């Protein structure tokens, strides 16, 4: 009798768990968002509309916006820049990318401008950039 009572009690306890089965995983889960990255040597051009943002052309179709920590003196007038990374082999979008824009100006010498964020622009955002900001 004790065995029968124990089996009945176990069935009562298990019944709610059987009544609410776990939902099945989605057939097509949404893809995980990955930050876009590029290799420094693939940068084909740059442009700046002001001293707070730099736009890099990478390959034929990609444009990245680099936001500066502060004003990068005469960024919009420069003909040559460099990118300095801190131990990374590629550069990825996101906040605090550990990247500096390095410029060399005759009057002030070397200047390092810390980058606070990098973002890959959509084709519509690239088309909406002012003409002097399109790399």
Question: Can you walk through the features of this model?
Answer:
The protein has 135 residues and is α+β, with helices and mostly antiparallel strands. Helices cover 18% and strands 35% of the residues. It is built from 2 helices and 9 strands; from the N terminus they run H-E-E-E-E-E-E-E-E-E-H. It has helices at residues 2-19, 123-128; strands at residues 37-38, 43-47, 53-58, 62-68, 82-85, 91-92, 94-95, 99-105, 109-120.
Residues in helices, as a percent range: 10-25%
Terminus-to-terminus distance: 85 Å
The major beta sheet can be summarized as: 7 strands, antiparallel
As residue ranges, the low-confidence spans are 1-10
- Topology, number of strands: 9
Structural category: alpha+beta
The percent range for strand residues is 25-35%
- List the total number of helices: 2
The mean pLDDT is: 78
Judging from the principal axes of the Cα atoms, what is the shape?
A: globular
What order do the SSEs take from the amino end to the carboxyl end, as H and E? HEEEEEEEEEH
Radius of gyration, whole Å: 27 Å
């Amino acid at each position: 009798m004790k065995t029968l009572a124990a089996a009945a009690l176990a069935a009562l306890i298990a019944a709610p768990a059987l009544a609410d089965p776990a939902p099945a995983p989605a057939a097509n889960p949404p893809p995980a968002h990955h930050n876009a990255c590029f290799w420094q040597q693939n940068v084909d051009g740059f442009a700046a509309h002001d001293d707070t943002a730099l736009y890099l052309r990478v390959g034929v179709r990609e444009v990245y916006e680099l936001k500066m920590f502060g004003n990068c003196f005469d960024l919009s007038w420069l003909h040559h820049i460099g990118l300095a990374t801190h131990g990374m082999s590629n550069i990825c979008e996101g906040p605090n990318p550990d990247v500096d824009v390095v410029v060399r100006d005759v009057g002030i010498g070397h200047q390092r401008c810390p980058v606070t964020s990098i973002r890959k622009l959509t084709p519509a955002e690239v088309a909406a950039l002012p003409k002097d900001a399109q790399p």
